Amino acid sequence: MSELDAISLEVIKNQLEEVAEEMGEVLIRGAYSANIKEREDCSTALFDHHGRQIAQAEHIPVHLGAMPDAVAAVREREPVPGEIWMLNDPFIGGTHLPDITLVSPVGAPDGSEGTLDDILGYVVSRAHYADVGGSAPGSMPAVGQEIYVEGIRIPPTRVATHDGQQKDIVELILSNMRGTAKRQADFSAQVAAHSRGAERLKQLSMTHGKRLTEAYDAVIEYSAERMEAELAEIPDGEYQAQDVLRTVESESIDISVTIRVDGKQVYFDFTETSDQVQGNLNAPQAVTKSAVYFVARCLTDPDIPPNAGCYRPIQIHIPDENLLNPDQPAAVVGGNVETSQRVADVLFAAFGEAEPQMAPAHGQGTMNNLVIGSRRSGFTYYETIGGGAGASATSDGEDGVQVGMTNTLNTPIEVIETEYPLRVERYELRQGSGGAGVHSGGDGVVRTLRICEPATISLLTGRRDTPPEGIDEGECGSTGSNRIGGKVVPGKITTDVESGTTVTVKTPGGGGHGNPVTTDDETDEWMLVWWAQDTN
User: Fold this and answer.
1) CB atoms within 10 A of CB 211
2) DSSP 8-class letter at 367
3) SS3 for 413?
4) What pLDDT digit, counting tens, does each position of 169-183 carry?
5) Contact partners, residue 103, CB within 8 Å, separation at least 6
6) Last residue of some domain: 193, 223, 253?
7) Which domain holds residue 450?
8) pLDDT tens per residue across span 497-526
9) DSSP 97
10) What parts of the chain have a pLDDT lower than 70?
11) 3-class secondary-structure state, position 265
12) Which of 176, 206, 223 is the last residue of a domain?
């Protein structure tokens, strides 16, 4: 443990986290697309000079847990201060192609540069661009056998040096995306966020000197020790859970995990999960890691600083060419948004085997991805639509919220109707869709949009035929459904429509926690006692 005193450690820890938060604010306020500036579909974090995560803004779980692999991929290219590196390749630290990651090495305040030894740390951002090319507007086609149809694939690429942006390289990349000018504006917002993060990190170095790098080690060690103490409270043993996904053809894909708790260590084994598939539900290994890290953090003390130390007690095994560790050039766009959600559900269920009161019931288990775009005018609308959260042992599930691996906001109706040729005809809670229990699951929502010009719709949704499960005898939440032009359509579809067509998405409810019959009996007994006391 570092010699840094507890007060200094707490101050520096909070300052590092504030740098990450401020980067996020700059990115959100400077972005052009509604997907980033309104929905806040982006994440920011800080890494130390060894490439270890030391602080993050509380943004998107599936982004943040995958960032360490992206930083490692850039570090292999021997970056130097003053550079900015871009990547989105899901096989080396990306999540899916629309998520564009920038990594910037930050040099010491004296301006020294030249080798890895001159790096003070790394500022990192990841933002979901509304389009990155590919076969369908929005770059999330429901049908695809290879990653090439999902958009431009970017390995770690230097897009700026100490002398400024590599404009020809940036132009080459962005010109392969629909709405190039808008993508340029979002890219500029990311660059501005990195500039602010680098400035703030250098200021901290000037303030604290060598104590800053001491704090890197100390805060990571502190988080590791606290996480180990939390995991030690889970009963030792081996726990299993399994669930299924549905492909475009409605075939079942198994997701299975075996968790072994051994003192302060937890081992996650996905050997029994299905092999990689022909469609786009393959989840890159970095995405699977994100789901594991997310669940581990959910089930432990939320006040543990989120950094590399949290993940030290965790070991993960995924075979090659597995659904959760596919080999390139597998299609993966649905793996990031849908498979990750099911992995989280399975992990919660497995921990529920260890202690039912510890884990929540399943939430809606899908991001309800809706993409509407035009090949003619070039507009692209993308949204993940909230649903019911699973109930816990102490509270009902929330209604109409994002759950699991996403943490984005709702796009305001005023923004939708101002920025896109769309009209919102219905948006309301789906009453009664949450599962009953001692604590009930949250309700889903219903959203209907009318499209005012010819367009292409892509839907990537789940839990349309297998409901979110309750826990400890709680009841299941309701399944979701989709309609285009009033006709029920599959959970995963890409289709062209005419002007005036409506699309309706009904999202699933969350599962209940505890036997609802017990709730009714206990309530009746309590009311009888209250009445007897009151009348006496």
Assistant:
1) 18
2) -
3) helix
4) 999 999 999 999 999
5) 70, 71, 74, 79, 84, 85, 86, 87, 122, 123, 124, 156
6) 223
7) 360-536
8) 999 999 999 999 999 999 998 644 444 443
9) T
10) 1-2, 111-117, 518-536
11) strand
12) 223
